[in-house]
Amino acid sequence: MSESTKDEGIIKANVSRRSLLKWSGALAAAGIIGIGLGIGGDLLIRPSVTKITTSTASGRTATTTTTATSTATGPTTTLTVPPTTLSYVPPLSPSTQTTVDNIVSQLISIHQGESVSYMVCAQDGCMDTCIMRVRSKNGIVTALEPDDTINNGIRESFQDVQTGMYQQRGCSMGYAWRSELYAPDRILYPMKRVGPRGVGGSLTRISWDEALSTIANAISNTTSTYGPSSIYMKINIWGFCGYALEGVLGGAIAGWGSYSHGGCFAAWNHVLGGAGGAPWTGWYWTPGNHSWDPSISGAGTGATDLLNAKLIILWPWNVVQAEWPNDPYVLLQAKEQGIPIICIDPKYTTSAEVLADQWIPIRPSTDIAMMLAVANVWFKENLYDQDFVNKWVEPTGFAAWQAYVLGQTAGPDGAIDRTPEWAAPICGVPAATIQAFAELYANTKPAHLRCGWTNGRYMWGENVPRAAIYLQAMSGNMCCPGGSEPNNIIGGGMLGPAPSVNWQRGGTTLPQTMMSAVRWPAAVLQRSAYDNGTITQDEYKSQTGTIGSVMPNIRLMIQDGNEMTQFCNCNNNFEALQMLDTIVCFAWHSSQALAYWGDIVLPATLPFFEGDVPSGDTLGNLIIDRFNSNSQLGNWWLYNDKIVQAPGEAEGVEWVFTHLANLLGVGQQWNPLLYNVPDDQWDAQLDSMHQAAYEVWAAQPGVVSQLGTMPSWTDFKKMPVVRYPIGSSLVPAPYYSFKGDIEAGKSPFRNNASGKIEFYSNFLAQGADYLAANDFLGVAFYGPWNAAPMAEWQAGIPGTFFAPDSGEYPLLLISSHQWFRQHSTNFNNPALRNNVYRHAIWLSAADATARGIVDGDTVRVYNSYGEMYVPVYVTSRVTPGVAVMYEGGYYVPSSATSDLMPSGIDLGGCMNFLMLSEPWPYSPIGTTFSANNVQVELLESSQNAASEETVTTTTTPSSASTTTSTDTNEGQRRRR
Predict the structure, then answer these.
(1) Residue 370 has what pLDDT?
(2) Nearby residues of 332 by Cβ (< 8 Å), 6 or more positions away
(3) Cα–Cα distance measured from residue 481 to residue 470, given in angstroms and rounded to the nearest whole number
(4) Are strands 447-450 and 283-286 parallel, antiparallel or unpaired?
């Protein structure tokens, strides 16, 4: 390389990043227009050529960023730095100019007369909300744009970030909602099943009157025949009941645990003394009793507290793809401030690529081995924080774990000195890397460790969350700014005051049955065995995680999610569904599994566009709350007015349950403010209720003193966002784990007998027989769980890297969140599929080569639970021995069947067909599992026909066909 070329490269590298981004944005926009015109993009946007002359003392030539010609003598070169303005050379021809003018005119015409509204994107799964600007015209959403309600057009300062006064940045899914709103296969009318459930059945259109009366009769008959625990409505977690009418009619079941972090619950309970759930919830729940104890100090971390850390460890936490918008943005700010970020993950994620200073690949399910080795280094080199340990850690259990780590006492695999050299061949991380990481971690304070919830979704998954707490305690990085309780979320709910509608709800009945939130298939499948005496009540309770004396007897299911395919072991779920009397579904796409299985399928709304923004309280019966403050940042709220009318006859959940309550005779009791409101006045009544709440809030002295006089309701709705600076009089400084208790001089761990962090659980030490007959603190029935009293390593656990069946199924398939959908939502969105995203199974180059597979091949993925035909993505971004598939794929049955897949081998890549669901005897049953062992092979020629069936993202598969009939009342039920 010549010296002049080197100098040119250096100068180019020093061009302002902002200038380069501005220029590249203009380049992209002009290029797109050029492509549309059918001419070369370079001809359309080619900048004028500027000649400059530069020289150096040695006579070497170099480029400069000046736009003028130097008076110095020397060779002439062409400016390669992007100019500040663009011009067209050669000029556009008259015909091309006319085409451009027509395009511009059409765009202007489209956007003339638009209305501008604001909404929250509150899609479940990303753990946060974003503010979006919505353009609509003639009742149709025309464009979705970023938040412009603060710092519009400028880059926020670091102080803006620290105080939370920055824009909420949407993700690809948020900006793709328009395609979902107007999806070609969107269900628009109530439907009922014709023929059998499942693949091969069909649906026919019915009126709302028929749908509502059918559901109301099913509710009445079910509760009168089968009693108080016979209705199951979508994911009941954290002690809540999802069935909206439970408070006035009874009949439902509450759920404990969580499909997301059941393993972490075990850690919170048995190490930190959480009573019935995570300490950050503040909830105590037992059958028939839910109470809030504000004295329980939250274990969450305010997003901006990340900026107080000196080291951030993501183990693993693919924050860029799994959570939006605050955490990635704040982490980017942390990176700019020079805070080191380390990512420990089996795959090279977007977070590792964008944020991390170091990526440490690790074999999934082996994290506990590396954690033990880190502790080993700390014990031997005296690197742990003895002052913190002496103050906050129970000493006997600490000594027991130290003896285990150092090999002085035996674990399941014997007495072993668990050094980095011991851990390296297990977890695949070199011993030198573990040693260096341990020393950096111990010597950098405060350190924020985020142990992703996926670590708890393996068999014995509670071990990693427990060990992560141990490490943060040993290093003194809990209970302090910049530290963390490592298994908890960033954020902790609304910190500043917000308006609230007084719904005047009636009814206080709480479910008398509480079961594991994820064990509804077992509750259905095992009920007949319990009824005929084949299994005992204790055995039934054990298999379903039931607390109390009233057993679940699920006969009616109401679904507004995709639990059919989004829970593990889909074939097991399908078997349970066939045993139910009635299935009611709120569905979006006719190709959802909901449409395969529902007896009554109701057209769902997209709430934040079409009204009825969902919320929830203990009973699940507070459905609408247009004052949305569900932000992890916690310092803003937004009034999310209805923006457009839902198409067809789609209705919100609140409207449906209000009409059901009316039919069942409890409408005035359940919803006194809306029960008798005519359809054409529904939205006006909701707006009036929220206006009254706003005006009460706006008159509060604290609000007036902090924000001044608030605008009228009419003016407020034009820009309906309120923010409080973090650190102001209304919003405290950033939250850190257990801040409330620490500052009040209380022990956050007072529910433990010792009042301290307990590395060793005396409750668990009593063994499986004791656990089979006893609850923990009265709130969690785990069944015969072979849980060690402290975090240990054990190989040979199903669904892990060293599983017993890994010889037959040698790849560990792990699931991942990504930014093209949340769980299964948006799987069918054409704006996020096809050339945008290829749903495939990831294989390392080594594993693909060994199987004769190349990128793009269609492969068979299978184990003893199910099988599928999917494309393969060959990459070096994943650890050998590991396969990766993004979760949330629809079930798309092919014409090919097998013993494992009697309804059709899956073409959609619904990975839950391959996931195990039996927890015994290795794991708490309050979780679902996100990994299992599989084999991947190139399809044989005889299988290719089925794998090549055409399945588009906008066509209803024939196996879920729908039929329509003329509705003489069409258009008459449309309201507001």
Answers:
(1) 98
(2) 354, 355
(3) 18
(4) unpaired
Tell me, rounded to whole angstroms, the distance of Cα 855 from its chain centroid. 28
Distance CA 401, CA 408 (A): 10
Residues of the chain with pLDDT under 70: 1-90, 123-127, 235-240, 275-298, 324-325, 489-495, 507-509, 612-624, 630, 772-785, 920-922, 924-926, 941-976
**What pLDDT, on the 0 to 100 scale, is given for residue 782?**
55
∠ CA 349-350-354, nearest 5°, is 125
606: exposed, middle or buried (Cβ count in 10 Å: 0-12, 13-18, 19+): buried
Tokens of 930: 């996100």
User: Cβ-count burial of 51 within 10 angstroms (0-12 exposed, 13-18 middle, 19+ buried)?
Assistant: exposed
Tokens representing residue 109 in the block: 């015409």
* Backbone torsions φ then ψ of 131, nearest 5 degrees: -95, 130
**E strands of 793-881, at which residues?**
811-816, 841-844, 858-862, 867-875
Helix (H/G/I), strand (E/B), else coil: 876: coil
* 163: amino acid identity, one letter: T
Token couple for 7: 């100098």
Residue 945 structure tokens: 């026909």
Q: What is the enclosing helix (H) or strand (E) of 624?
A: none
pLDDT score recorded for residue 466: 94
Neighbouring residues of 672: CB distance < 8 A, sequence distance ≥ 6: 504, 505, 506
Bridge partner list, 137: 140
Q: What angle do CA 834, 835, 838 make, to 5 degrees?
A: 60
Question: What pLDDT sits at residue 816?
Answer: 84
213 vs 255: CA distance, rounded Å:
28
Please tell me whether residue 437 adopts helix, strand or coil conformation: helix
Task: Identify each DSSP E strand in 828-959 by its residue range.
Answer: 841-844, 858-862, 867-875, 882-886, 931-938
Using alpha carbons only, how large is the chain's radius of gyration in Å? Answer: 30
Beta strands in 800-850 (DSSP E): 811-816, 841-844
Tokens standing for 664? 């069942």
Residue 916, SS3 per DSSP: coil
Cα atoms in the Cβ-side hemisphere of radius 13 Å centred on 900: 14
3-state helix, strand, coil in the chain (%, to 5): 35, 15, 50
* Alpha-carbon separation of residue 368 from 63, 374, 674 (angstroms): 54, 10, 53
Dihedral, 822, 825, 826, 827 alpha carbons, nearest 10: 100
Q: How far apart are the first and last CA of the chain?
A: 71
Q: What is the model's pLDDT at position 559?
A: 87
Residue 515: what pLDDT?
83
The backbone region for 476, taken as left when phi is positive above 0, alpha when psi lies in -120 to 50, beta otherwise, is: left
CB 604 within 8 A of CB 187: yes
Contact yes or no for 560/232 (Cβ under 8 A): no
Instruction: Report pLDDT for 785.
Output: 64
Q: Please give the DSSP secondary-structure letter assigned to residue 134.
A: E
